[in-house]
Amino acid sequence: EVQLVESGGGLVQPGGSLRLSCAASGFTFSSYAMSWVRQAPGKGLEWVSRINSGGDSTSYADSVKGRFTISRDNAKNTLYLQMNSLKPEDTAVYYCAKYQESSWSGPFDYWGQGTQVTVSS
Predict the structure, then answer these.
(1) Which pLDDT belongs to residue 113?
(2) What is the pLDDT of residues 30-42, one digit of tens each?
(3) From the CB of residue 116, how many other CB atoms can be counted at a distance below 10 Å?
(4) Phi/psi at 55 (5° precision)
(5) Sign of the CA dihedral running 83, 85, 88, 90
(6) Do 77 and 24 meet the contact criterion of CB atoms below 8 Å apart?
(7) Which of 30, 42, 58, 64 is the most buried (most CB within 10 A)?
(8) CA 97: distance to chain centroid?
(9) What is the rounded distance in angstroms from the CA atom of residue 6 to the CA atom of residue 18?
(10) Would you give per-residue pLDDT tens digits along the chain (121 residues)?
């Protein structure tokens, strides 16, 4: 059974940092690209970042470029999102998602339960 379990969310002041983690199990983690997706209160899903299976190629939404860093540890089956210089508009539930195919094209087939990030003074 595929499982994606996010952690690391919380309340942080503007300008602060958080690191999210996503522990993966039930599939060969190192064979699949992964993404982070977020949903702000009352809004739709917004793609945040993606990383290829080997971890040497990444992509970011313009809204987070230069502030967030995606990474992965295939030995630990874990995906990360380092978030710096956080802004109130980064407040959202953050989900990790697995691509259906090994590359980062195409749909997601599994999602985590999400972790809440709140940026507020």
Answers:
(1) 97
(2) 999 999 999 999 9
(3) 12
(4) 85, 5
(5) negative
(6) yes
(7) 64
(8) 7
(9) 13
(10) 999 999 999 999 999 999 999 999 999 999 999 999 999 999 999 999 999 999 999 999 999 999 999 999 999 999 999 999 999 999 999 999 999 988 888 899 999 999 999 999 9
Residue 31, helix vs strand vs coil: helix
Beta strands in 8-119 (DSSP E): 10-12, 18-25, 34-39, 45-51, 58-60, 68-73, 78-83, 92-99, 108-111, 115-119
Cα diameter, the chain = 41
First-last CA distance in the chain = 40
Q: Which two tokens stand for residue 22?
A: 């996503």
Contact 71, 56 (CB under 8 A): no
DSSP assignment letter at 5? E
Q: Determine how β-strand 10-12 pairs with β-strand 115-119.
A: parallel
